[in-house]
Design goal:
Blueprint (H helix, E strand, L loop, with lengths): L1 E6 L10 H15 L3 E6 L19 H10 L2 E9 L2 E2 L1 H10 L18 E8 L4 H14 L3 E11 L16 H23 L6
Parallel strand pairs: 1-2, 1-3, 3-5, 5-6
Antiparallel strand pairs: 3-4
Protein name: Flavodoxin
GO molecular function: oxidoreductase activity
């Protein structure tokens, strides 16, 4: 079982990132379940806009796509900006749109059998809206979602504290992070043993 986390912070490495921190916490929960994985900060790569598998001109999405296709679980980690997932998260979904024309010999999308989950951070209310938007996109693209497939932290309205600056992880966040990992892993195992029927 393998998980890929695409961290969709707007900041390239080595800048600190609350999204990356929450992603790391989710990945540690997957490790406890024996799942191996990799984390990629998308802002560190040249991923131009478009809905093709390869947009040319040094597009690094094809290499990232290979990682998505090799994974059983895709975790997206995004901050909230102006009430929405980051533009980089949206770009990942747009680039994954190319998968709608890719099928196996039985007519199934290549993403069928892959399970997705989401980690959201922000300093305003909006995690439910972001998860609703991203979940709909992921489902349209062929990913399956387990119950509790999101973990998030949002602070009080109008405050300036970042998740990465908290003294400790709130118990509620730690609990939802563990639920995300356990349920997502469970569904991924089930789908690996019993794939979806031909389309």
């Amino acid at each position: 079982m393998r998980v890929l986390s695409l961290v969709c912070t707007l900041n390239a490495s080595p800048a600190r990132s609350s999204s990356h921190l929450l992603s790391d916490q989710v990945m540690r929960e997957f490790e406890k379940l024996g799942v191996t994985g990799e984390t990629v900060r998308v802002a560190d790569h040249h991923v131009p806009p478009g809905v093709g598998i390869d947009m040319g001109g040094g597009d690094e999405w094809p290499a990232l796509r290979e990682k998505v296709m090799a994974a059983d679980v895709l975790l997206l980690a995004t901050p909230i900006w102006l009430g929405h997932a980051s533009s980089i998260c949206q770009r990942v979904l747009e680039r994954l749109d190319a998968e709608l024309s890719e099928t196996d010999d039985e007519g199934r999308l290549l993403t069928y059998g892959k399970v997705a989950a989401l980690a959201v951070v922000g300093n305003e209310d909006g995690a439910h809206k972001v998860s609703a938007d991203v979940f709909q996109g992921l489902n349209d693209l062929g990913f399956s979602l387990a119950p509790g497939a999101v973990t998030y932290w949002v602070g009080e309205a109008k405050h300036g504290t970042d998740y990465q600056d908290l003294d400790a992880t709130p118990d509620e966040v730690a609990s939802t992070t563990r639920t995300l990992a356990v349920n997502t892993h469970h569904l991924a195992v089930l789908l690996s043993e019993r794939p979806y029927p031909p389309s």
